[in-house]
Amino acid sequence: MQNEELHAYGLCGLKPEEFDRLTLPEYQSLLEAAYWKEARQIKLLASALAHLLSPYLEHPTPIPFLVDDLLGGDPVAEVERTRTLRLAAYRDAEEHS
After folding, report:
1. Is the pTM higher than 0.85?
2. CB 68 within 8 A of CB 50
């Protein structure tokens, strides 16, 4: 089983016959949606952790800064940036065809 199938079946919850019918752009969009959902969940968990830890910190730090420090950046924004770049590349390819 290849990585694409692992992602399709595990992360996206597709059945083999559904995966076989997808085009590459459809598969990429579906995978990005799954990554986006996962990134939102991670950010939510980091936010909850930051709220729990904030009273015990020596220096008060705003929650959004704590979340960014815990995650090393915004995972949701990274997924959205990657999607924007992919869609722009598709548009450029279509214009030059």
Report:
1. no
2. no
